[in-house]
Amino acid sequence: MNRLWPYPWIVTAILLATARAAPAQEAAYDLLIKDALVLDGTGNPARRADVAVRGDAIVAVGRLGSAKAKRVIRARGLHVTPGFIDVHSHADRALAGSNIEARRAPNLVNQGITTVVLGADGRNVKWPISKEIAAFADPGVGVNVVPMIGHGTVRGRVLGTSYRRPARPEEIERMKALVRQGMDEGAWGIGAGLEYLPGRFSTTEEVIALAKVLASYDGFYYAHQRSQSRLPRWQLPSMVDGPTLDGVDGIRETIRIATEAGIRAVGSHIKAKGRSSWGRAVQDTKLVEAARAAGHQVYLDQYPYETYNGGAGPIFPAWALRGGPDELRKRLADPETRTRFETVPNRFGIDSESIRYRSNRPV
């Protein structure tokens, strides 16, 4: 599989329907974007330029004068930017599914997203990786995809249902073999979900051992870290006998993985979740800045939202979820038990007023 980075340019003019297209004779290019404010993605300020495209590649950027094209977009006053890369995407199920419209991914393209990094939270929609890539390729998808090896997928295939413990040395070797297989088949690296099952029972040493496999492939690692706030969301630290971890510990772990494995690493959707975590962003960024100053390739990504969504698991304690949705519904209907729930969100740094429930998908 060719490893293609994003379709080169997203044109604001098209999305806003304010640009005018005109045919041209003796066209040298397939597409010519005229008189745009070009942001090249390097951090440089916008510059006025024309952008010429032939096939699916940009072949010229600059003042192209009277150049001809099959299609001309006059983009004066509008910006042309590189396509955005979504480094933590859950689009894989839709992209691998049978719904052709979903595979076109208009919801992503209309936002300017042209590349998605998959394997979010350590899960693959299909295994082996070659099968997952084939599902995207036939009959094709509307965005570029970066397939990743799900740490949880690999861990589950080796440990099966006996995953609530650290992996044994021989099991780590089997996981490493699966990582090598996945990289040989076209994966770009490992995606992990260390606050989810089965990843939250892994040790840092296990993850480092798998991440070291990536080094010879120039692969990278990204993770939903073990905690995003004062406490692990699930109240079950992966280090079975270790201390309770918080969001800062999660970032330290990502830095350690990058450092010891000698690879690039990304901590995903970093947030100061809940009032008790407010102000933590300064500490987070200082940790990463120090690691980068020391020569390590560590990054954080952050979404711009004030809220996030999830299932019942993060909100309720483990005892409340025993017996499945029907038993939880009964407990919610009991006034005394419901009162007990009201103290739980504060353990995550989230006050009760901040929580909203959806009724269209009952617990």
Distinct helical segment count:
13
Q: What is the approximate shape?
A: globular
Average of pLDDT:
84
Low-confidence stretches: 1-22, 234-240
Q: Please give the share of residues in helix.
A: 25-40%
What does this structure look like?
It is globular, with a radius of gyration of 23 Å. The protein has 13 helices and 15 strands. Strands 1, 2, 3, 4, 5, 6 and 7 form a seven-stranded mixed β-sheet that branches. The chain has three domains: 9-82, Urease, subunit C, domain 1, CATH 2.30.40; 85-300, TIM Barrel; 318-354, no CATH class. β13, α9 (247-261) and β14 form a beta-alpha-beta unit. The protein is of the alpha/beta class.
Please outline the helices and strands:
Elements: E1 9-11, H1 12-16, E2 21-22, E3 29-38, E4 47-54, E5 57-62, E6 69-74, E7 79-82, E8 84-86, H2 92-95, H3 100-104, H4 106-109, E9 113-117, H5 129-137, E10 144-146, E11 149-150, H6 151-159, H7 169-184, E12 189-193, H8 204-214, E13 220-224, H9 247-261, E14 264-267, H10 281-293, E15 298-300, H11 318-321, H12 325-333, H13 335-341
Parallel strand pairs: 3-6, 3-7, 8-9, 9-10, 11-12, 12-13, 13-14, 14-15
Antiparallel strand pairs: 1-7, 2-6, 3-4, 4-5
